[in-house]
Amino acid sequence: MKLKKLLATVALMAASVPALFSQNVALKTNLLYDALLSPTLGIEVGLAPKWSLDVSGTLNAWTVNNKKWKQWMVQPEARYWFCQRFAGHFLALHGIGGQYNFGNLNLPFDFLGTDFRQLKDYRLQGWMAGAGVGYGYSWILDKHWNFEAEIGIGWIYTRYDKFKCKDCGYKVESDKPHNYFGPTKAALNIIYVF
Known about the structure:
Blueprint: H1 2-21, E1 25-30, H2 31-35, E2 40-48, E3 51-60, E4 63-64, E5 67-81, E6 88-103, E7 110-111, E8 114-115, E9 123-140, E10 145-163, E11 171-193
Antiparallel strand pairs: 1-2, 1-11, 2-3, 3-5, 4-5, 5-6, 6-9, 7-8, 9-10, 10-11
């Protein structure tokens, strides 16, 4: 009789474990970056009723049509949710870190002090680090699926080496610093919430 009660208690506790951990973890991918051939994967963990920690990463290791856009990036982010985590409006504070190798890209514009025109004739290889703030909204689609939009602005500091052509090793400049201020995050995330 005691064994039956013990087994019943263990079964009841095991059945309640998913309820204790529900809405605590979510997996996601950024459809914008995925469409640009930079696959993303992120995990978000609930820390408190209105706080969560999101860590997303992206990797692009391909050369497409002789154009080089290789990079990896990690973006940890603390989020404050106005209602409850994983639903509705949120504010975010994010960090950025990664490395890149860009070249043979015809981007004929200058954006917020960054001259992208030089990527047509030069290859830039370096690292970056920065921080920013963001705003987003998450729509609940059903019990386990959400859709989220977020935009962020911030600052990125980078140091890079500049090469004369996209493939050759002739270095024109070394360890050149650059500061960037502007958009640091754009996301349309599809999310699976556990």
